[in-house]
Amino acid sequence: MKIAVSYSCGKDSALAFYKMKRAGHEPLCLIITVNEEAGRSWFHGVDYDLMEKVSKAIGLPIITSAGKGEDYNENFESALAKAKKMGVQGCVFGDIDIAQHLDWNQSRCGAVGLECIVPLWGQSRESVVVELLGAGFEAVIKCVDKKYLDAGFLGKTLDAALVEKIGATGADICGENGEYHTFVRNGPIFNEPVPTVLGEVVDFGSHAAIDIK
Fold it and tell me: Which CATH number fits domain 125-212: 3.90.1490.10, 3.30.70.1290, 3.30.70.2690, 3.40.50.300?
Protein backbone atom coordinates (compact mmCIF):
# COMPACT_ATOMS: atom_id res chain seq x y z
CA MET A 1 0.00 0.00 0.00
CA LYS A 2 1.14 3.56 -0.68
CA ILE A 3 0.93 5.53 2.56
CA ALA A 4 1.21 8.96 4.11
CA VAL A 5 2.40 9.24 7.70
CA SER A 6 0.85 11.69 10.14
CA TYR A 7 4.25 12.62 11.53
CA SER A 8 4.61 14.61 14.74
CA CYS A 9 8.43 14.22 14.67
CA GLY A 10 7.97 12.21 17.87
CA LYS A 11 8.59 8.61 18.84
CA ASP A 12 5.18 6.98 18.34
CA SER A 13 4.64 8.28 14.81
CA ALA A 14 8.23 7.30 13.98
CA LEU A 15 7.66 3.76 15.26
CA ALA A 16 4.36 3.44 13.39
CA PHE A 17 6.14 4.59 10.21
CA TYR A 18 8.89 2.01 10.80
CA LYS A 19 6.47 -0.87 11.32
CA MET A 20 4.63 -0.09 8.09
CA LYS A 21 7.83 0.32 6.09
CA ARG A 22 9.22 -2.94 7.48
CA ALA A 23 5.96 -4.68 6.46
CA GLY A 24 6.61 -3.66 2.85
CA HIS A 25 4.37 -0.62 2.46
CA GLU A 26 5.58 2.41 0.51
CA PRO A 27 5.65 5.80 2.30
CA LEU A 28 5.18 8.73 -0.08
CA CYS A 29 5.01 11.71 2.26
CA LEU A 30 4.86 13.01 5.81
CA ILE A 31 1.97 15.16 7.06
CA ILE A 32 2.89 17.57 9.86
CA THR A 33 0.34 19.76 11.63
CA VAL A 34 1.60 23.30 12.23
CA ASN A 35 0.49 26.07 14.56
CA GLU A 36 0.52 28.93 12.06
CA GLU A 37 0.82 31.65 14.70
CA ALA A 38 3.84 30.03 16.36
CA GLY A 39 5.48 28.79 13.18
CA ARG A 40 6.02 25.42 14.83
CA SER A 41 4.41 21.99 14.80
CA TRP A 42 1.48 21.49 17.15
CA PHE A 43 2.34 19.88 20.51
CA HIS A 44 5.99 19.07 19.74
CA GLY A 45 7.09 22.61 18.83
CA VAL A 46 9.34 21.75 15.87
CA ASP A 47 10.18 24.77 13.71
CA TYR A 48 10.21 24.85 9.91
CA ASP A 49 13.98 24.65 9.62
CA LEU A 50 14.11 21.47 11.70
CA MET A 51 11.18 20.02 9.71
CA GLU A 52 13.21 20.53 6.52
CA LYS A 53 16.14 18.69 8.10
CA VAL A 54 13.80 15.82 9.02
CA SER A 55 12.44 15.69 5.46
CA LYS A 56 15.98 15.53 4.06
CA ALA A 57 17.16 12.89 6.56
CA ILE A 58 14.15 10.64 5.92
CA GLY A 59 14.01 11.36 2.19
CA LEU A 60 10.31 12.19 1.95
CA PRO A 61 8.45 15.43 1.21
CA ILE A 62 6.35 17.09 3.90
CA ILE A 63 2.78 18.26 3.46
CA THR A 64 2.03 20.81 6.18
CA SER A 65 -1.41 21.17 7.70
CA ALA A 66 -1.07 24.75 8.97
CA GLY A 67 -3.72 26.73 10.82
CA LYS A 68 -4.70 28.53 14.02
CA GLY A 69 -6.67 25.78 15.73
CA GLU A 70 -10.29 26.42 14.82
CA ASP A 71 -9.66 25.12 11.29
CA TYR A 72 -7.51 22.17 12.44
CA ASN A 73 -9.82 19.43 11.09
CA GLU A 74 -10.41 21.11 7.74
CA ASN A 75 -6.71 21.77 7.20
CA PHE A 76 -5.77 18.19 8.00
CA GLU A 77 -8.34 16.88 5.53
CA SER A 78 -6.91 19.25 2.91
CA ALA A 79 -3.43 17.82 3.57
CA LEU A 80 -4.81 14.28 3.25
CA ALA A 81 -6.44 15.22 -0.06
CA LYS A 82 -3.06 16.44 -1.36
CA ALA A 83 -1.49 13.15 -0.30
CA LYS A 84 -4.26 11.23 -2.06
CA LYS A 85 -3.44 13.05 -5.30
CA MET A 86 0.11 11.75 -4.94
CA GLY A 87 -1.27 8.19 -4.97
CA VAL A 88 -1.58 7.61 -1.23
CA GLN A 89 -4.15 4.97 -0.23
CA GLY A 90 -4.00 5.29 3.55
CA CYS A 91 -2.62 7.43 6.35
CA VAL A 92 -0.63 6.06 9.28
CA PHE A 93 -1.02 7.35 12.84
CA GLY A 94 0.99 6.60 15.99
CA ASP A 95 -1.89 6.42 18.49
CA ILE A 96 -1.96 3.58 20.98
CA ASP A 97 -5.29 3.34 22.79
CA ILE A 98 -7.12 6.65 23.27
CA ALA A 99 -10.50 6.10 21.60
CA GLN A 100 -11.09 9.81 20.88
CA HIS A 101 -7.87 9.96 18.90
CA LEU A 102 -8.83 6.93 16.84
CA ASP A 103 -12.27 8.40 16.13
CA TRP A 104 -10.66 11.64 14.98
CA ASN A 105 -8.20 9.83 12.71
CA GLN A 106 -10.95 7.72 11.16
CA SER A 107 -13.19 10.75 10.59
CA ARG A 108 -10.47 12.73 8.84
CA CYS A 109 -9.47 9.81 6.62
CA GLY A 110 -13.08 8.89 5.90
CA ALA A 111 -13.82 12.42 4.73
CA VAL A 112 -11.32 12.08 1.88
CA GLY A 113 -11.64 8.35 1.17
CA LEU A 114 -8.39 7.10 2.68
CA GLU A 115 -7.79 4.13 4.94
CA CYS A 116 -6.91 4.93 8.57
CA ILE A 117 -3.97 2.81 9.75
CA VAL A 118 -2.85 2.56 13.40
CA PRO A 119 -0.01 0.01 13.68
CA LEU A 120 0.51 0.56 17.43
CA TRP A 121 -3.15 0.29 18.37
CA GLY A 122 -3.79 -1.93 21.39
CA GLN A 123 -0.13 -2.51 22.24
CA SER A 124 0.98 -2.16 25.84
CA ARG A 125 2.96 0.95 26.76
CA GLU A 126 5.91 -1.23 27.72
CA SER A 127 5.96 -3.10 24.40
CA VAL A 128 5.91 0.18 22.46
CA VAL A 129 8.91 1.54 24.38
CA VAL A 130 10.80 -1.75 24.16
CA GLU A 131 10.24 -1.94 20.39
CA LEU A 132 11.23 1.71 19.91
CA LEU A 133 14.50 1.37 21.80
CA GLY A 134 15.23 -2.06 20.35
CA ALA A 135 14.89 -0.69 16.81
CA GLY A 136 17.55 1.91 17.55
CA PHE A 137 15.54 5.12 17.57
CA GLU A 138 17.05 8.18 19.28
CA ALA A 139 14.24 10.22 20.83
CA VAL A 140 14.96 13.40 22.79
CA ILE A 141 12.43 14.73 25.32
CA LYS A 142 11.24 18.02 23.81
CA CYS A 143 8.30 19.10 26.01
CA VAL A 144 6.97 18.14 29.44
CA ASP A 145 3.73 18.68 31.32
CA LYS A 146 4.98 19.93 34.67
CA LYS A 147 2.12 18.20 36.47
CA TYR A 148 4.01 14.99 35.82
CA LEU A 149 7.64 15.71 34.89
CA ASP A 150 9.97 18.57 35.74
CA ALA A 151 12.18 20.49 33.31
CA GLY A 152 15.16 18.32 34.26
CA PHE A 153 13.87 15.70 31.81
CA LEU A 154 14.16 18.08 28.85
CA GLY A 155 16.90 17.32 26.34
CA LYS A 156 17.43 13.80 27.68
CA THR A 157 17.53 10.90 25.23
CA LEU A 158 15.15 8.03 25.96
CA ASP A 159 16.79 4.85 27.15
CA ALA A 160 15.73 2.08 29.50
CA ALA A 161 16.97 3.92 32.59
CA LEU A 162 15.16 7.14 31.67
CA VAL A 163 11.94 5.27 30.91
CA GLU A 164 12.14 3.66 34.36
CA LYS A 165 12.67 7.08 35.91
CA ILE A 166 9.61 8.47 34.06
CA GLY A 167 7.51 5.54 35.25
CA ALA A 168 8.64 6.08 38.84
CA THR A 169 7.02 9.55 38.82
CA GLY A 170 3.63 7.98 38.05
CA ALA A 171 3.65 9.35 34.50
CA ASP A 172 2.72 7.18 31.52
CA ILE A 173 6.01 5.83 30.18
CA CYS A 174 4.85 6.56 26.62
CA GLY A 175 3.55 10.02 27.46
CA GLU A 176 0.27 9.02 25.79
CA ASN A 177 -1.70 11.49 27.90
CA GLY A 178 0.63 14.38 27.06
CA GLU A 179 3.05 13.91 29.97
CA TYR A 180 5.92 14.47 27.53
CA HIS A 181 6.66 14.76 23.83
CA THR A 182 9.81 13.79 21.97
CA PHE A 183 11.82 14.70 18.90
CA VAL A 184 13.30 11.72 17.01
CA ARG A 185 16.66 12.55 15.45
CA ASN A 186 17.85 9.14 14.27
CA GLY A 187 16.70 5.58 13.71
CA PRO A 188 15.88 3.01 11.03
CA ILE A 189 13.53 5.33 9.07
CA PHE A 190 16.38 7.83 8.55
CA ASN A 191 19.01 7.77 5.82
CA GLU A 192 21.19 9.94 8.04
CA PRO A 193 20.87 11.45 11.53
CA VAL A 194 19.20 14.84 11.87
CA PRO A 195 21.94 17.24 13.03
CA THR A 196 20.69 18.91 16.21
CA VAL A 197 21.81 21.38 18.86
CA LEU A 198 19.94 21.75 22.14
CA GLY A 199 18.89 25.33 22.82
CA GLU A 200 17.25 27.19 25.68
CA VAL A 201 14.54 25.87 27.97
CA VAL A 202 11.31 27.87 27.88
CA ASP A 203 8.81 27.74 30.75
CA PHE A 204 5.16 28.15 29.74
CA GLY A 205 3.74 27.76 33.24
CA SER A 206 1.95 24.42 33.02
CA HIS A 207 4.47 23.11 30.47
CA ALA A 208 8.14 23.52 29.65
CA ALA A 209 10.02 22.87 26.42
CA ILE A 210 13.55 22.86 25.11
CA ASP A 211 14.35 24.42 21.77
CA ILE A 212 16.09 22.11 19.34
CA LYS A 213 17.91 23.59 16.36
Answer: 3.90.1490.10
